[in-house]
Design goal:
alpha/beta, six-stranded parallel beta sheet, 11 helices, binds pantoate
Length: 281
């Protein structure tokens, strides 16, 4: 894998090597794990040239301590990418990405009103803006996003549709540990007790999904049961648990069609999210 630090060097390298090949982009903030591995492998299977980007984007952090404590290890990430056949690892500095304060942002309205967007002001504006920049820098044919960040995926899909970015967004299924916990860079910050409690998040969503599959339509009752599971361990603090429609991510009162069950919890100072898509009988 070739590590590239500047926009101009990346553009030059890609002009040289793309020549009619499909170009796949996997945008990341580093701290790569098997979830990213799945995105990279999928890109490698489908594309002639694979670019991974590694940029801890200050614009999308609503808390400075979270930005500062975000795990960073370029060497390990480069080794990870090399093992998966990535051609270029684009790892720009903050100054390279934001040489001057921005006057232009991408704001995808309504889709960010609930779930994580409600609790992390400015987060999705930061995500959409940096993803738009990455699309303009790399000009990929395909870009790969994990379903674990379901709201991010929906917002990026909408941005691409609304602003005519010539890129196909490929959603990739969440990778889970054997106990169900969705893989996340933040899992490494859990202590042993926190790690033992964390699978309750997935378990609560599964309980909710099963209720829907059994014919329960009342969101109030569905949430009640899932919250019971989450509250069964005092280490967990629930930030939100919502049932929303897949198009606009607006809260539902009854589940009559496909719906997304999504939750965010805190264990100590570690925030975890997960979601499941369900279709009633
Ligand atoms: O999902 C992430 O890691 C980030 O939000 C992304 C898409 C790389 C944008 O910074």
């Amino acid at each position: 894998v070739e590590i590239v630090r500047t926009i101009s060097a990346l553009r030059e390298a890609l002009t040289q090597c793309r020549r009619g090949k499909l170009l796949g982009l996997v945008p990341t903030m580093g701290a790569l794990h098997a979830g990213h591995g799945r995105l990279l492998e999928r890109a490698r299977q489908e594309c002639g040239v694979v670019v991974a980007s590694l940029f801890v984007n200050p614009l999308q952090f609503d808390r400075r301590d979270d930005f500062e404590s975000y795990p960073r290890d370029l060497e390990a990430d480069a080794t990870f990418c090399a093992a998966r056949g990535v051609d270029f690892l684009f790892a720009p500095s903050s100054v390279e990405m934001y040489p001057a304060p921005l006057a232009t942002y991408v704001d995808v309205v309504r889709l960010g009103d609930h779930l994580c967007g409600r609790h992390r002001p400015g987060h999705f504006r930061g995500v959409a803006t940096v993803v738009a920049k990455l699309f303009n820098i790399v000009q990929p044919d395909r870009a790969y996003f994990g379903e674990k960040d379901r709201q991010q995926l929906a917002i990026v899909q909408r941005m691409v549709r609304d602003l005519d970015f010539p890129v196909e967004i490929v959603p990739v299924e969440t990778v889970r540990a054997p106990d169900g916990l969705a893989l996340s860079s933040r899992n490494s910050r859990l202590d042993a007790a926190g790690r033992a409690a964390a699978p309750l998040l997935y378990r609560a969503l599964k309980v909710a999904a099963q209720l829907v599959e059994e014919g329960e339509v009342s969101v109030e009752r569905i949430k009640e049961r899932a919250l019971e599971v989450l509250r069964s361990d005092p280490l967990l603090r629930v930030e939100y648990l919502e049932v929303v429609d897949p198009e606009w991510l607006q809260p539902l009162e009854v589940v009559k069609g496909p719906a997304i069950l999504a939750a965010a919890i805190w264990i100590g100072d570690v925030r975890l999210i997960d979601n499941l898509t369900v279709t009633p009988r």
